[in-house]
Amino acid sequence: MKKLIFTIAFISWGINCFSQTVQSYLDSANMVMVLGDTMKIHYLNKAINLQPNNPELYSKRAYIKQHTRTPDGKKIDHEGAIRDLTEAIKLDSKNSYYYRERALNKFRISNYSGAIIDISKAIEISPENAYYYDLRGGYKEKKNDFYGALSDYTKAIQLAPETCEYYESRGNLYLDLEKFEKAITDYSKGISIAKTSNCFYNSEKIKKHFLSRIYNNRAFCKYVVDDLFGCISDCNMVITLSNDLPSYFSSKDVALIYIGLSKIELGKKEEGCLSLSKAGELGNEQAFEYIKEYCQ
């Protein structure tokens, strides 16, 4: 508490004793991490009052709003962020980042058409940005424009062929379209890149979460195309990776179901049913439905 009071006093002293410039308010906003986002917005409001034609100030305030709940505590203030980004765009219509961020906020309030329009404008300004195509692919999927999404994911891969997440995006769409062999090919490429590249911001946890997801999806595809041994192998990788992940990131129960079903089809009923039982122990209710069907 003493530290908090001292921080508030120091900030107030700094602003009162020196000229109230935009930079001083920005510095104050950066200093008040301990006080929370409400105080950051307070100082950005003051900065905007001094420089109402500075698009970057609106962008900074939008970033805080899109990560902060509204005063009633019920939801993230995406609408407020959109308003700020609209002001930033009015002041600087050539900045693709502002369109990208407004697209993200529109997407999060289910305005998928609006998100597509904004991210398309971002692409028009920055046509070599692979991430923008990946985003637009996701937005198009929400509008059931699957082949448009496929084209965007492919473009993202062409622009950044060593980015493993783009192969996951396209692989997931191939899975939804029931093009399982193509999905397996993309998942395999994503796995290969993830194992050898220095991606995921050097975070082993993020890397393991990605690999767990993609092995799990590839396992499903292999099960569908009757590559049962390949399915079991991928599921074992999921289980190994899940041991190092928080439970809410774990797909261990699903992997155990695929192992169980694969082993039952391979004539190893007892082993398969035990695997299904373990999935049930982890809270997967579907496992008991399979036990009822295959293990009586």
CA-based shape? elongated
Roughly what fraction of the amino acids lie in strands? under 5%
Number of helices: 16
Spatial separation of the terminal alpha carbons: 63 Å
Average predicted local confidence, pLDDT: 87
The low-confidence parts are 1-19, 31-35
Structural class: mainly alpha
Query: What is Rg?
Result: 25 Å
> Helical amount among residues, as a percent range?
over 70%
In short:
By secondary structure, the chain is mostly helical. Helix content is 75%, strand content 0%.
What does this structure look like?
With 296 residues, the protein is mostly helical. Helices cover 75% and strands 0% of the residues. It has 16 helices and no strands. It has helices at 2-17, 22-31, 37-50, 55-65, 78-91, 96-108, 112-125, 130-142, 146-159, 164-176, 180-196, 204-224, 228-242, 252-265, 269-281, 285-294. The N and C termini lie far apart (63 Å). The relative contact order is 0.04. Mean pLDDT is 87; it is low at 1-19 and 31-35.
